[in-house]
Amino acid sequence: MKKNLISINDLERSDIESFLSTASEVEKLTKRKASDILPGCILSTLFLEPSTRTRLSFEAAMQRLGGTTINLASEVSSVQKGENITDTGKVVAGYTDICVVRSPYEGTARMLTEKTKVPIINGGDGANQHPTQTLLDLFTIKKEFGSIDGLKIGMMGDLKYGRTVHSLAEALDNYSVEIRLISPDETKMPEHIVKEVGVEEETNKMKIKDLDVLYTTRIQKERFPDKQEYERVKDVFVLDEERVKEMKKDAILMHPLPRIDEIKPEGDKLPQARYFEQAKNGVPARMGIILELLGVEVNV
Amino acid sequence: MSDLKVSKISNGTVIDHISPGKGLVVMSLLGLDGSSKRTTSLLMNVESSKMERKDILKVEDRKLKEEEVMSVSVLAPEATVNIIDNQSVVEKKLVELPEKIEGVLECPNPHCVTNTDEPLDVSFEIIDKKPVMLKCGYCERKFTTQELDI
Ligand SMILES: [Zn+2]
What is the complex's ipTM, to 2 decimals? Predict the structure, then answer.
């Protein structure tokens, strides 16, 4: 059983499976029963940069379990007054039973595991890791199909800089899935990840008809040195109603949100659209993570 | 070796067979910058029967610790380390890549938490030996020795 959740790379398949199964068990409980699990427990969120949704999702998860939360927001943080993160972390984590850390500095959460005694959850560290997002993505896929093995999974959009898709690809390496990477040549997934995870296919065409899961991310304008080039590629990868309808009926379309215009709102009502459900799954997924790290079993 | 311009040392460490030109970085890796007050001699491009040319580093009155010897291996995998006591070689070590290097190297990633004011030692995991690849234990980025810029 893991004490901290810092990086997807620390997890074996069995670790991932325990997080997911605890999440799915806790999701089956009535609200009343769930709120009996952790009364009196406090979760702290130490956010050195804002990320409202991640924070709210953790707060909702802890409160659904009957616990409470305290927050150190980036704008009032003592770190800005010159105290180092280590000291602030020791103090804030010390008030509580479990602590979520978000930081622009890569490795902050790992560092705090060495300095504090309570379980630490990485809520995002710069371009490095955001493991609770990856677990909620896997939770969504597993909830939908019952099993992750055997699926054809496409990742599309900005595969070069997107932390979410890197982590997801690394996590999926624990499963026997077929991975297809779909992106313009300018935003291809870094070679070292492609090699590491065993990718079946890389393409710059929108080849999505046979997929079970399409995970799409936003191509950011800032990434393109040539704005005309951006204008050219951005429309190739927009999912409108017609495009989504090309997908299998029982396939699912995922996106970490927020989306801008890479999925048109008209696609939302189609049976494949699953991104709002995915965001909602962040709560049970994080409930499972909190319980696993605290070593608390769910009695159904 | 009769034409060596630096005499033998009586106590300390001699790092031999450093690839030519790498001697300076080995020095900086070991923190030998003059503030240590130890007599340090660096010979560059010395003729060698084994490797044509080589660098040799001699540090008086300092015996390299095991982890220091290992960290030398990242930069100079073919080096040999001789520990000298009372004018004779008491220990001869081939450097060997360790699994981890702690506290000696700096992470080149400007966004890494080890490059802030936090009180911590950088640690690198050696994830590949040929060519050498190191992974920062904090930001998890992977680097070649060239990228480590030492
Ligand atoms: Zn680093």
Answer: 0.90
